[in-house]
Amino acid sequence: MRVYKILRWPILVILCFVIALFLKPPDRLASRQQSPAAIAKNANGFQNKLGELQEAYQRGEAGTEVRLTSDEVAAALAVANLQPSARASQRAAAATSTNTDSSNPVALTPEQVGVKDPQVIFEGDEVKGQFAANVYGKDVFVTLSGHLGAKDGYATFAPSSFKIGSMPVPIAMVQAQLDRKLSEPEAREKLKLPEFVSDLKIENGQLVITEK
To answer: What distance lies between CA 35 and its chain's CA centroid?
Structure first.
């Protein structure tokens, strides 16, 4: 009983410190937040580059590469996470467009872009991402980094660091859960690469996508 009385306060202090680190928002990965106009522009750039890759595949030009910046990828993620009203507006614009060529997607306007701030940056040969999950009404930020690749037609991710809030978490503690999550059918479907993509990697701070 006496030992418990001696240890309870240090244990309580440590637990409070850990909880505080979990809930403390980490530093932003990106130095600035993209405006809706910038998101629309970069998302269109992302679509256009993928269109160029698809056209090269259709012409039989194997090995063509395109390079994407982190701003373009972050903008594409923002568009993929549009609010329902904005998503409906985008679908309506696509339906009324007279251009049916898939290599020339409908351009987005700033009004169609939800005010989201996906945190994605490329450093060297690594990708770093940050997102918030609402846990019991509190935003808890998750920051992770790792290496992108491709295998058997699917994107792969090998984590190198993981952080909850401002608290670093050893990869060994989350690797099994991450592998299990990525192996779920819904996640696998999202990781499936287009038929014209053979490889992807981060190189010199850019996402390099290689056509088959």
So the answer is: 18
Structure tokens at 99: 């251009």
DSSP annotation string for 57-83: HHTT-TT-EEEE-HHHHHHHHHHHT--
Cα–Cα distance measured from residue 164 to residue 143, given in angstroms and rounded to the nearest whole number? 6
Q: Residue 122: enclosing H or E segment and its boundaries?
A: strand 119-123
What pLDDT is stored for residue 90 in this prediction? 45
Number of domains within the chain: 1
Do residues 43 and 120 touch, judged by C-beta distance below 8 A?
no
pLDDT above 60: residue 125 = yes
End-to-end, the C-alpha distance of the chain in Å comes to 69
For residue 193, give both structure tokens: 């690469």
Q: Tell if the pTM clears 0.90, that is, is over it.
A: no
User: Where in the sequence is the domain holding 191, given as residue range(s)?
Assistant: 2-211
CB atoms within 10 A of CB 8: 10
